[in-house]
Specification:
Layout lengths: L33 H11 L12 E10 L18 E10 L14 E9 L2 E8 L12 H8 L10 H9 L5 H8 L13 E2 L4 E4 L5 E10 L8 H10 L3 H11 L5 E10 L25 E10 L4 H6 L12 E2 L4 H18 L74 H9 L2 H15 L4 H14 L1 H11 L8
Antiparallel strand pairs: 1-2, 1-9, 2-3, 3-4, 5-7, 6-7, 6-10, 7-8, 8-9
């Protein structure tokens, strides 16, 4: 077998990769050993900053195929005809854990899809839950801090989590979901995915619709018990990552069916809940699931760092026919995610192969750290110009969004029902599922200061009186009617 010659980063051949250059056999090393210095310097820098959230992840390539016609709702090219296929990359992740944390912990899972469409990249960056803990992005960093490590002890703290949740009633719906069976999936293949936020569609006639995205696993929902998760975490911390990789290697390609819920634009003004509230779901009976297509994962990455770790997702990556909504959490993520990628991977992160669109970008962006292409050569870097530079296409314009109201800081909790949907979720559970939920909540709350336990109980009481009684009994507390 012919072997390639090892080189330096600049391409110069390396004569010896086993021995450093020294002043004599026992003498000190020499600064002129540029190969040694290059290797040490690169090693010191081979870890990019990990994501603040969603740090631990697994991913794979695949294909999305349209199975039903939804062109009455959107002019997006990805959905233009039945049978159309679009390549994609999907990254799964845990939210709170660090890069080396265990897979089988109770935590929401990220479900981020990068569709390499004919009109550019569309990133649908969601979770395995249709809801979230908060509805106002001003509280996002506080929420994440409460789920991370105590600055004094350096350890995760149930007291921090429940202190925040007990003061944030909008978290109840997601708390019930997280502490239930689906808070600990058996594998990445056996869970659903959601866009979570409300997004918008518009069609060729300029009609706008509000939309929610649902990926339903074709493998079936499977979950782990708390004991199973803890056992696996100790024996095989990368269990979910390995399961996904091996399934694809064995040709057992996981699949999800994509559905949408579609709401006519004007319905948002009269719907019984705020349709842009990330802590709420739209009832299926009001807006049924509409099948769109099938997502299949069928190819593993060749290099984890280059493809999974450097994959950069941003909800701001839209294509014509798909856009944002007034969802406040989404509005903030349009900036924060793209900005996080600029920090982690530099302003030119879209040039990394896993992030590069399948169409050639035509921009006036120039220069910046890690510019790895020709930097558009001699093309002008301003617009308007008279030398043939790219120009905007008015036909791709999004329809106008009507906005009313005074600019102010509105109390997002005022007049909001944060308990009915959380209670509905509890009441949908089987007796066995309720037992596991109660046990998990009692265990999670057991080492929390009693004043926080007592502050949390009224939230459970408003959610469902039976749930509150059972938790109070488990904690050996009295539960009373909330004020």
């Amino acid at each position: 077998m012919t072997r390639k010659t090892m080189t330096t980063g600049a391409g110069a051949p390396v004569a010896d990769n086993q021995n450093s250059k020294s002043a004599g056999r026992r003498g000190p090393l020499l600064m002129e050993d540029v190969h040694l210095i290059e290797r040490m310097a690169h090693f010191n820098r081979e870890r990019i900053p990990e994501r603040v959230v969603h740090a631990k992840g697994a991913g794979a390539y695949g294909t999305f195929r349209v199975t039903k016609d939804i062109t009455q709702y959107t002019c997006a090219g990805i959905f233009s005809e039945v049978g159309k296929e679009t390549p994609l990359f999907l990254r799964f992740s845990t939210v709170a854990g660090e890069r080396g944390s265990a897979d089988t912990v109770r935590d929401p899972r990220g479900f981020a899809v990068k569709f390499y469409t004919d009109e550019g990249n569309w990133d649908l960056v969601g979770n395995n839950t249709p809801i979230f803990f908060i509805r106002d992005p001003l509280k996002f960093s506080d929420f994440i801090h409460s789920q991370k490590r105590d600055p004094r002890t350096g350890m995760r703290s149930n007291a921090m989590q429940w202190d925040f949740w007990s003061l944030s009633p909008e978290a109840m719906h997601q708390v019930i979901w997280l502490m239930g069976d689906r808070g600990l999936p058996a594998s990445l293949r056996h869970m659903d995915g959601f866009g979570s936020h409300t997004f918008s569609f518009w069609n060729d006639q300029g009609e706008r619709f509000w939309v929610k995205f649902h990926f339903k696993t074709q493998q079936g929902i499977k979950c782990l018990t708390e004991a199973q998760g803890q056992k696996i975490a100790g024996e095989h911390p990368d269990y979910h990552t390995a399961d996904l990789f091996q399934a694809i290697e064995d040709g057992e390609y996981p699949k999800w069916t994509l559905y949408v819920q579609v709401m006519p634009e004007q319905d948002a003004e009269t719907y019984k809940i705020n349709p842009f509230d990330l802590t709420k779901v739209w009832h299926y009976k009001d807006y049924p699931l509409i099948e769109v297509g099938e997502l299949e994962l069928n190819r593993n990455p060749e290099n984890y760092f280059a493809e999974v770790e450097q994959a950069a997702f941003a909800p701001s990556n839209f294509v014509p026919g798909i856009g944002p909504s007034p969802d406040k959490m989404l509005q903030a993520r349009l900036l924060s995610y793209a900005d996080a990628q600029r920090y982690r991977l530099t302003v030119n992160h879209a040039q990394i192969p896993v992030n590069r669109p399948r169409v050639e970008p035509q921009t006036y962006h120039r220069d910046g750290s890690m510019r790895t292409d020709g930097n558009y050569g001699r093309q002008v870097n301003y617009e308007p110009n008279s030398v043939g530079g790219p120009v905007a296409d008015p036909s791709k314009k999004e329809p106008p969004l009507r906005i009313e109201g005074d600019a102010d800081r509105y109390d997002h909790r005022e007049g909001n029902d944060d308990y009915t949907q959380a209670g509905d979720l509890y009441r949908l559970m089987t007796a066995e599922e309720k037992d596991r939920l109660v046990n998990q909540l009692v265990n999670h709350l057991s080492d929390v200061p009693v004043e926080i336990q007592q502050r949390q109980l009224p939230h459970f009481q408003r959610t469902d009186p039976e749930l509150a009684r059972r938790i109070a009994a488990g904690l050996k507390l009295e539960v009373s009617e909330p004020a």
